[in-house]
Amino acid sequence: MSQQITTASGIPVADNQNSASAGSRGPLLLQDFHLIEKLQHFNRERIPERVVHAKGSGAYGKFTVTHDISRYTKAKLFSAIGKETETFLRFSTVGGEKGSADTERDPRGFAVRFYTEEGNWDLVGNNTPVFFIKDGIKFPDFIHTQKRLAQSNLKSATAMFDFWSRAPESLHQVTTLFSSRGTPDGYRHMDGFGSHTFSLINDAGERVYVKWHFKTQQGIKNLTAADAVRLAGEDPDYAQRDLFNAIAAGEFPRWTVFVQTATEAELAAWEGRTGWNPFDLTKVWPHGDFPLQQVGVLELNRNPLNYHAEVEQAALSPANVVPGMGYSPDKMLQARLFAYHDAQLYRVGTNHQYLPVNAPRCPFHNQQRDGAMALANGGADQNYATVEASGTSPQGLGHGEPAMPVNGPAARYDGRGVEDDYTQAGNLFRLLPADEKQALFDNLAGPLSQVPDEIVFRQLGHFDKADPAYGAGVRAALKARGRNID
């Protein structure tokens, strides 16, 4: 029998799987101390390397507007076709340590900073449009399964598939991870995604929800499993080397930037037809329902001069959005809005925004003072906000974000057994060509052959529900490895 989970102060935890939210869609509640403590402790588990996305590569560049989206957003960086904005992009692997190989089977981080005249906008995403979980309270647990066991200091396929097999919401991303796209050929030949649903707000205060897509102009290229393993031994810095050398040679990589947009009413109608929560990070918005609309082009054209100062200390956060942008009730996004900035405070320091790679390119002023490395400490400026006895008067600046509707009582909502975790994973499987399906079967059979029967049976059940041919293919691949599972 498992032990009762408690907080670090010994207080029993009633629910360790679902965050407290204002209604079933969120947003999350600050009063959920267990969520806050869990994320805060998780952010402080490694010194000084990042807990996730530890090994990364970065480069500077520019974003150029090619199509008008001012009807959706008042953000000034989109105000005119041809307008350019300086950018910084950090690529990374997710689960490995700082010295791990670039070619490991893993999602890739795709984190873009836009240095706009209204402050920094950070779009902190991945090379996949979905993720393994839909609630941030599960994130520390999930990442622990991808890291090393406490006793042996070895990674464990059993831990990974034990988690995935108990969380069918992960199936969509697991299918992506074990397909050919789980081992991209460097960073230049993969797409990027904001992944979460965000908001755009126009001058009239109207909100549309949005998903961001970065389509590589270099073409998609992936490594076979055998080549990925070979390169891990021959050149573990393969992706870093490829990116740096390409930029140094003037072969500047580019991505075409697109958005999908939808009003609240459009999303409600789509959910009514499909049953899918549009703010669920384990789901995509099909392009047939929400077509891609081109916005601009992202180009990387300058390598950093000092890796530690400009890449290792780069501190991005999805909470950084500029006027004309906003968030959504996505529970994973809501947790990340807190967790990323908190991680940077711990890892880099309370004044990390003063570092050149993190500093905005526009004037900034606040009343924050002191702390370690307070390079610009305000001097004789007033360090407190004057209280207005008659009430505050909005300045007409800033985000000006319209109210986001919430519904339902504040509670923890568990959608398991109710929500559809299989259809989109099956759709992805059915899109794969025959050779890529076989690669998927073989890639899954490798680690699955190392785990106990109970977990294999549970995971195969998920494959069967996505598509019977999916489960049958993995069974055949396991049998070819001498593991007969019936």
CATH fold-level label of the largest domain: Catalase HpII,  Chain A, domain 1
- Topology, number of strands: 12
Order of helices and strands: EHEEEEHHHEEEHHEHEHEHEHHHH
Shape: globular
Helix fraction, binned, reads: 25-40%
Computed over alpha carbons, the radius of gyration is 23 Å
State the low-pLDDT regions, or none.
Answer: none
Average of the residue pLDDT scores: 93
Indicate the CATH architecture of the largest domain.
Answer: Beta Barrel
CATH superfamily of the largest domain: Catalase core domain
The major beta sheet can be summarized as: 10 strands, antiparallel
How many DSSP helices?
13
CATH C-level class of the largest domain: Mainly Beta
* Coarse structural class: alpha+beta
Organism: Pseudoduganella plicata
GO molecular function: catalase activity; heme binding; metal ion binding
EC number: 1.11.1.6
GO biological process, one term: hydrogen peroxide catabolic process
Secondary structure topology:
Layout: E1 20-22, H1 33-43, E2 56-65, E3 84-93, E4 108-116, E5 119-126, H2 139-146, H3 157-166, H4 171-177, E6 192-193, E7 198-201, E8 207-216, H5 225-234, H6 238-248, E9 254-262, H7 264-274, E10 293-302, H8 307-312, E11 325-326, H9 331-347, E12 410-412, H10 423-431, H11 434-448, H12 453-466, H13 468-480
Helix pairs in contact: 2-3, 3-12, 4-10, 11-13, 12-13
Catalytic activity: 2 H2O2 = O2 + 2 H2O
Domain Catalase core: 6-393
Binding site for heme: 340
